[in-house]
Amino acid sequence: MSSALSLAVQTKREDDLLESQYLKGVQHLCDSGITRVPSKYVLPVSERPVTKGGEKNAVDLNLKLPVIDFSQLQGPNRSQVLKSLSKACEEYGFFQLTNHGISSDVIHRMIDVGKRFFELPYEERAKYMSGDMSSPVRYGTSFNQNKDGVFCWRDFLKLMCHPLEDVIPHWPSSPVDLRQDAVTYSKQTKFLFLMVMEAILESLELVQTTENDTEDDILKEFEDGSQLMVVNCYPSCPEPDLTLGMPPHSDYGLLTLLLQDEVKGLQIQHKGKWVTVEPLPNSFVVNVGDHLEIFSNGRYKSVLHRVLVNSSKTRISVASLHSLPFHRTVEPSPKLINEANPRRYKDTDFASFLEYISSCEPKKKNFLESRKLT
Ligand SMILES: O=C(O)CCC(=O)C(=O)O
Ligand SMILES: [Fe+2]
Question: Which residues form the Fe2OG dioxygenase domain (predicted)?
Fold first, then answer.
């Protein structure tokens, strides 16, 4: 950015920055030394994290999510833990997963290499920019940069992880350790997803510990399912009350395994209020996605969440989104439909989700709402 342009950004809320500058991302904007948030990122008052009357809109409300101890699931307490799991998915749509077996070394390497990717010179990151939603690698900014009227304070690197051997050669070659660290991380999170999903099926009474064909079929499909890894970077922001790192949204898939660094920012909607999820070191925040809400016929909830930014620290998170194979239809499990519990959702698939988000601004729980039978 030229020094004249940089000066203009500093002195007034700049409205005439070219769209092409915003598309280079928030990190790039921050590197130019801005001291105010450009109007492109300023939300209407009603959508800001702090509302006008000074009411903090739950900024102060911290929430201890239900904790599921993964190691306990493997032992004699399994049925008790399954009950807690079921309650968490029904009441919060979120839980923290501890003692999950993924080492802190693997976790720290992933966060660290993700962070170093966003510290690369802009030209290096820009090699991976793509407007193609099906690209195996995509560097970009905001939430849906082609549609967002107001931009979000977030840059991202999206890595498709399935089929792994086919996509790796497309992943960034810099930092040099990114591919190796991301491969290890994606394999381990996939394995964890399968184990948690098996417990979830059991909690929905769709799988018994005894053998059954149908259940095996579902689990095999999960094994062959899609996995998308999203490294999110939320640079520190000079006016964090005016903007959001991510707008309210729900995740499309079955489950998301989210790793956050030690910086707070994630908020979930709980009992009508926005509450902040306290980071718990070495744990995963796991949330129910739209596909699991549909599959469970509404019993497990895909809950709206958003991300706040702050004025002092860059925040990094890594979300691993898992679902069924790309072309597989998602439908309420027939075993969960009966007279008392009629079918609540239309069938859907990943392709129709992509079509939906490319045709409208996904600010609310729009997609899932569009699948509901009235
Ligand atoms: O950064 C976070 O804490 C949340 C990220 C998220 O919601 C997502 O990637 O879908
Ligand atoms: Fe999300």
Answer: 224-324
